[in-house]
Design brief:
This protein has helices at residues 15-28, 40-49, 68-78, 93-102, 115-148, 168-174, 178-181, 195-208, 252-277, 280-295, 299-328, and strands at residues 7-11, 33-37, 56-60, 84-88, 106-109, 153-157, 163-166, 213-220, 226-238, 241-250. By secondary structure, it is an alpha/beta fold.
């Protein structure tokens, strides 16, 4: 016997049917907690006052105060997510299918009811509720991660390339209104020259069914600004459509910063070469002239050598000025982030 605790509400106006269902429950379940209601009003009162949800609701479709489809709709609305199993004496296949569409977990004819069939229905309905609840929680977590993420994210359909969803960060960064974006496809956020690359990449991803794709691509904002983004995407099922969820991290400023650093490094290499080659010539002349001046007795010769020293010093000063200009010319363009 099943030792799990089940809280079960039987909504049944026929005392004989109620007793039979209760006996069936005790044949398969060790200690079910069973409550009964003779009509819809009594069931609604129990459900509103109960401090704990029921695991299962067994519902007769012919109650004194409500029957059929209206009864199902009202019960689904107030049952707090508990699976509802319909027990009926009327064999109406079309209505049975419709009741499942309305949210009923199972539809069983009373004439075919046994303790085992009732227990199986309860177990299957209970497990189905857990799975559905788990999926709902998973979808909620996805929604929270997606919409609250500070990184721009979007979802697009693989077949049409249409946008299916986009988070607030994407809307804010790219400048489109969400309603506008959902009428677009992802080609419209790519510069025209990038479309062939996009199509080739999507075709290859679909062929290989890669879980993720990485790379730097150009995107187009609504204002016409072209940005470079790092793309990471994964295949998902979104509202029964084959889709991809994509994170688009704007790398434009970072890449511009790297380019500025590389340009500055090139200037530093040029300055280093100047220091090791161009500066050495006038400096060597000055150093060679100093001992000659010190040893010279002829005033005219000393004055001539001093003129050479001044020329070399001026040349050295000009070189130093050029070095200083090169080292400071682009300092204001390098802004670390």
């Amino acid at each position: 016997m099943d030792k799990k605790e089940y809280r079960i509400l039987i909504v049944e106006d026929n005392p004989g049917d109620f007793a039979l269902v209760e006996d069936f429950l005790f044949e398969q379940i060790e200690a079910p907690v069973v409550l009964g209601a003779e009509n819809y009003k009594a069931a609604a009162g129990i459900l509103s006052k109960c401090d704990r949800d029921f695991d299962i609701i067994l519902l007769d479709l012919s109650l004194p105060d409500k029957t059929g489809e209206p009864l199902i709709k009202e019960m689904i609305e107030i049952c707090a997510g508990a699976p509802v199993i319909v027990l009926t004496g009327y064999a109406d296949f079309a209505f049975g299918v419709k009741s499942l569409y309305l949210g009923v977990s199972d539809y069983i004819l009373k004439d075919e009811l046994t303790s085992l069939s009732l227990y199986k229905s309860i177990r299957y309905s209970s497990e189905r509720k857990k799975i559905v609840s788990s999926l709902e929680k998973s979808e909620k977590r996805y929604s929270e991660l997606f919409h609250l993420s500070p990184l721009p994210m979007y979802v697009f359909e693989l077949e049409t390339l249409d946008f299916l969803d986009a988070n607030d960060a994407f809307i804010k960064h790219y400048g489109y209104a969400k309603e506008e974006l959902l009428r677009m496809n992802i080609k419209q956020i790519r510069p025209p020259e990038e479309i062939p690359t996009l199509e080739i990449g999507l075709l290859q991803d679909s062929k290989d069914h890669k879980d993720s794709s990485l790379g730097i691509y150009k995107h187009l904002k609504k204002n016409g600004e072209i940005i470079q983004v790092d793309i990471q995407s994964n295949f998902i099922q979104f509202k029964e459509k084959n889709a991809k969820v994509t994170i688009a991290t704007d790398m434009t400023e970072r890449l511009n910063y790297i380019k500025a650093i590389e340009a500055q490094n090139e200037k530093l290499r040029e300055i280093s070469w100047i220091q090791s080659h161009v500066v050495r010539a006038p400096l060597s002349r000055i150093m060679g002239l100093i001992p000659l001046i010190q040893d010279a007795d002829d005033g005219a010769e000393k004055e001539m050598m001093l003129d050479y020293v001044i020329i070399s010093a001026n040349e050295l000063d000009e070189i130093i000025r050029n070095i200083t200009a090169k080292s400071t010319s682009n300092d204001d363009t390098i802004k670390p982030h």
